Amino acid sequence: MASSKATTENLTRAGLNLIQQALSIYDSDLRCVRVNRPFKEMFDLPENLCTPGAHFSDTIRFLAERGEYGEVGDIDEFVTSRVEQARAFEAHYMERTRANGRTISIEGNPLPQGGWVTVYTDITAIKDQEKLLRARSAELSDQLLAHTERLSQTNRELAATNAALEEAKRQLTEMEARTRMTTEMMPAHIAHVDADGYYTYSNRRLSSIIPSRPSNILGLHLSQALGDFAYGKIRPYCDKARSGEASVFEFTDDESSRRIRVAFTPDQYDGDKRGVYILSMDVTEEAQARAALAQTHKRELAAQLTSGMAHDFANLLTIILGMQSRLARMVDDADAKELITATQAAARRGGTLLNRIAEMSGPREMRPKAVDLCGFMNDLKTLATPTLPEGVTLQTRCTGVDTPVLLDAGSLQDSLLNLILNAK
């Protein structure tokens, strides 16, 4: 890589030294970036003033002290004036006769990165030809000769202006290409339509927003580019934008099911008509995130409400358990005590469920333990029988299970009770 850079540097230096004009390039801080050999030879400059980093003011001072600009009263003031002119970085063209009698043209142009480049051309031969023409053409009027000289100078100035315009055109072309590349890389469709609804600009991203639509839509009408469904959705808002009212809205595309957000910005008046800038974005993921967030918020509210209700019902179950305990001490009948025991078990089970409801912020946790399956089925029958209508009986049978089974008794009991109650 270092060798390649060195080769490029040598080629550039050799090429600049081969051109006939003197050339100098200074950066935005007025420090030398590069000069060619004709520049050094034209002004007979020392090596230190032709080295990168040399300041422009030092070169002007050296030339002024040597008499390059003729008689100069205050050299410091002269140098300051030239430096201030240079800091303006304005394109210029001028011709002047040097102290040695040679005439040069000076063409300067600013650089887009800051600084400027100046080209010096020795036009002594051209001036000599003009003098010769005047001397040998006594029959020509002074007016015609003056006109010829002015025309010659004007042509040179026009050539310099054309070069500056060509450079400006090149820079504008590069800027346009960079701008278009940037817009075409954006995850959005940027477009402009005229007052009649025809596309005058597009960054060719419509197909990335609505997959079924084309990318090259310049010259197409909105209805052709978007299709009847999408055009029907945006038309009212586009009409408002033509009237000067900006707006933003969202719709779901019928074919792709994508959620599209569209922003309309009125263009400046073009006579009695107004165009519209349109920005379209695929916000499907954002819409899904908003919906999920809203659903989560609803669930949180429901959980808070359910938790409060569970707390109130737990208080009622506490009262029921207390009354059943007193009733068990007052009754000696075995059947009644069995029902009281079943009621207490159901109430305690209800309390356990309410505790879980009150803690429903997370997923339900399984709590398996060893359970006597036959005893479990008998308890289930005791709980379910009182809820059955008259004429309906529940029978359970437990065979072949002699050892405890590892399961979540509460969850299994809830599921079986739910089946029985729904089946009755």
Any overview of this molecule?
By secondary structure, this protein is of the alpha+beta class. It folds into five domains: 2-122, Beta-Lactamase; 135-185; 188-282, Beta-Lactamase (2-Layer Sandwich); 284-365; 367-424, no CATH class. The chain is 54% helix and 17% strand. It has helices spanning 2-18, 37-43, 56-66, 75-87, 124-136, 142-185, 206-209, 222-242, 284-330, 334-358, 373-384, 409-423, and strands at 22-26, 32-35, 92-97, 103-110, 116-122, 189-193, 199-202, 247-252, 259-270, 273-282, 369-371, 405-407. The strands form three sheets. It has a five-stranded antiparallel sheet with strand order 2-1-5-4-3. Strands 7-6-10-9-8 form a five-stranded antiparallel sheet, sandwiched between helices. Helix 9 runs antiparallel to helix 10. The longest helix has 47 residues, at 284-330.
Please summarize what this structure is.
By secondary structure, the protein is an alpha+beta fold. It has 12 helices and 12 strands. Helix 3 crosses helix 4 (75-87).
**Helix/strand order, N-terminal first:** HEEHHHEEEHHEEHHEEEHHEHEH
Largest sheet: 5 strands, antiparallel
Q: Can you tell me the residue ranges where pLDDT is under 50 for at least 5 consecutive residues? A: none
Number of helical elements: 12
Total number of strands: 12
Relative strand content: 15-25%
Produce the secondary structure layout.
Blueprint: H1 2-18, E1 22-26, E2 32-35, H2 37-43, H3 56-66, H4 75-87, E3 92-97, E4 103-110, E5 116-122, H5 124-136, H6 142-185, E6 189-193, E7 199-202, H7 206-209, H8 222-242, E8 247-252, E9 259-270, E10 273-282, H9 284-330, H10 334-358, E11 369-371, H11 373-384, E12 405-407, H12 409-423
Antiparallel strand pairs: 1-2, 1-5, 3-4, 4-5, 6-7, 6-10, 8-9, 9-10, 11-12
